[in-house]
Amino acid sequence: MIFSDLRHGNPQEDFNMGKLNFFLIPLGQDHPIEEKLRWARLLYEEIGKELGNDLIFKGLLEDYKKRIDNTWIAMKESGVVKECTLCATVDGGSCCGAGIENKFDCIELLINLFLNIDFPDSPFDPTGCFFLGERGCLLKARHVICVNFMCKRLYSQITEEKIKMVQRAMEKETEAAFILEEYIKHWLARHLSKE
Length: 195
Ligand code: SF4
Ligand code: SF4
Known about the structure:
Number of domains: 1
Order of helices and strands: HHHHHHEEHHH
Structural class: mainly alpha
Bound molecules: iron/sulfur cluster
Shape: globular
Number of helices: 9
Largest sheet: 2 strands, antiparallel
Number of strands: 2
């Protein structure tokens, strides 16, 4: 089997070969979402327990969870959540368009599995992002472009002071996500075969 066949084939076959190879993991955005979802699930099954017991990983994951919560607190306190809810439910607006799911890589999806997120089998709204559910985003670990996005409506309805408070929380969340993702990649590189 040639290398490209392995990358785009069924990863379960690779696992059944008894060796999970670091270089076969589809890191980065440039892979179909189905492939990234498959790999995230398989990585979670294969190394979830061992990585989950790693003390540094545990600490980074806890820190990330707190920062995600803090962003949501800041968004609620500032009125961002209220404005977005009005936009989505009354005005038919949305910024979660189809294709944004392609920005994720399989490590970000893997983190969502550690946060007990269950991925949908198909999109709730075919014109929307694959991860958009009936009541909003289904993910806990969102992509940096989702976390940081502020539209004109928000800038016009929320005071500058509150926008800055939300942006500070967003920045801390995305920093924590970056550190965690990098740690996971290094952990995988140290623990998986590279031959
Ligand atoms: S960010 Fe803007 S476009 Fe998106 S839901 Fe909120 S108000 Fe609507
Ligand atoms: S916030 Fe969630 S549903 Fe919206 S674009 Fe991002 S991942 Fe998709």
